[in-house]
Amino acid sequence: PFVGGGGGAVLRGRTGLGVGGTGVLGVRAGGLAARGEALLSFSLDPLRDRGAAPYVAGGVAVLGDRTGAHEYLVAVLGISLNPGANRGWFAEAGVGGGVRLSVGVAFRHGH
Fold first, then answer.
1. Residue 95 in contact with residue 78, Cβ under 8 Å?
2. Which of 35-44, 52-61, 81-90 has the lowest mean pLDDT?
């Protein structure tokens, strides 16, 4: 499996639709690897200042390691805490080249 850490960005409007990407460096099969994703997302309650709001996302990923490049389709279910606030937490679970888990803090602009 691939295990790594990185960052990402999402541009989301008031409608809940968003487009984003991630970049992650990590290891796979004992060697250095990198993964990039491009995702379209939809938040069910993007303006909620407090509490949790679910979202879904889908897109493509490319994983590069010593054996070459590998492409995957990605599907994600997530929960965002305080999505209408300037800062909040998120957690995601999904598939795309295996099980995909992600947690982090989100910094938002323009709220």
1. no
2. 81-90
This prediction has a pTM of 0.88
**Pairwise CA distance, residues 81 & 48, whole Å:** 9
Nearest-angstrom CA–CA distance, 15 and 36: 26
DSSP assignments along 8-35, one per residue: EEEEE-TTSEEEEEEEEEEEETTEEEEE
On the 0-12 / 13-18 / 19+ scale of CB atoms within 10 A, 71 is exposed
76 burial level (CB within 10 Å; 0-12, 13-18, 19+): buried
Contact between 39 and 16 (Cβ < 8 Å):
no
